[in-house]
């Protein structure tokens, strides 16, 4: 069923790009993981601070979110797959040349700067039509503000391209840290810009005059500051690039770079990314109808979520998947790839089952924790205005809906690693296309049947449902090609761990009740009290969860905590040795 790529390209990537020893690999992974974690935390801080500045269920918040997200999606649509899939093997191969890839990297960076500059200039000129095409029901004033934001945000496309190509060049020379830590600088800059915005213009007050009194100075500070962060994120990578010893210079001799050959190999992956990003743009257009509808309400629709609130709930939900499932799946992918290379197909099923069972430990706990703590988590991103509680409650409701698909998102992610490990990129693309088509059909039906004031809730539910469908389709395709991978045992594990997670959730809900989490008490008073409540409830739930897993002798707990537990004694011995 799948279309397989020649193994030499992908094997060369894995062999050349990985550090030569286990210690080097561990150090690289730890450096990248720490950069990702710090960036995520700062990203949450930035999102919460932005809600303080402009609100989270306001017209300005939705309009800015639209203008600020479009460059990211357009970049991924036009070139993201090329940078992440097509160029990596070429850079790695070039790094083995006598000049360590200086000539090829120079050509590639020059090509990127020229192409992305032209594309960005064209997109900036078309900012108005793009905003109009990707919004639904917006008034001329809303479109005008969205266009003004887009003029300042669209140059991000250029800097995303520079960041991607320079970052991949660094990765090809095993300089992994800078690429993963550069977004930290971006978030720090944006936090500073938003802080300056609040200092100069004040926090959002929910007085109903935000849109009417919005100034051009507020536009360029907010949107320009966002682009400044992306620009610095890209430009700072030239410092470690120069330290690699590569001699980078403008080089327009692009013929013979070999992009067409590798592009054909990665065609299915590129097609999959294209389908997914087009669907994202259309989903955003449908949800934007809430922005126009909210303006018709007497109170401005404080509790009506739009694109900003929906994207925030998605940002929150994906965190445990990014931290736990992605890390575990990376290890699983290497193991599966090794089995396929050695033609050990009988070991594929046990490895996959073990990976799925292990990820159940963190993901099921995170799912229940989000369900219990949806309100206080939403309150963190509700801002500080008079309607902060209503806005936080709206985000919390969205979080509940998107969380329902979290375990299935991780299951799907694990299952398609099998196809990628066998170098089949066609099957994952087919799954992505099927889900995108189903999702778009349902989304268009909702656009005509669901009131705009409820469209964000409907879309959040759709996100959860499509995650479930993705896992089901991937399951059947894996079983069809590789046979039963111990599904009954995997389901039994999820049920056993799931019940323990539910028990910990019940205990956590009791503690949250005492903190006023269900009565708009202490947990809802402010962002700080919400954070305190989350920490207290989360710790109680975690202790109950781990104790019950231990007493139930769930082997997956040791599988998940084993590497950490083994490292703690080593760290203690090292600390004593230093003293």
Question: In a few lines, what is going on in this structure?
Answer:
The chain has helices spanning 7-17, 22-54, 59-94, 102-125, 127-133, 140-153, 156-172, 176-201, 216-235, 238-243, 259-265, 267-287, 289-294, 307-341, 348-380, 388-403, 406-421, 426-449, 455-482, 487-514, 522-525, 527-551, 555-578.
What does this structure look like?
By secondary structure, the protein is mainly alpha-helical. Helix content is 80%, strand content 0%. The protein is built from 23 helices and no strands. The protein has helices spanning 7-17, 22-54, 59-94, 102-125, 127-133, 140-153, 156-172, 176-201, 216-235, 238-243, 259-265, 267-287, 289-294, 307-341, 348-380, 388-403, 406-421, 426-449, 455-482, 487-514, 522-525, 527-551, 555-578. Helix 6 runs parallel beside helix 9, helix 14 (307-341) packs antiparallel against helix 15 (348-380) and helix 15 runs parallel beside helix 20 (487-514). 46% of the residues are buried. The model is unreliable at 1-22 and 564-579 (pLDDT under 50).
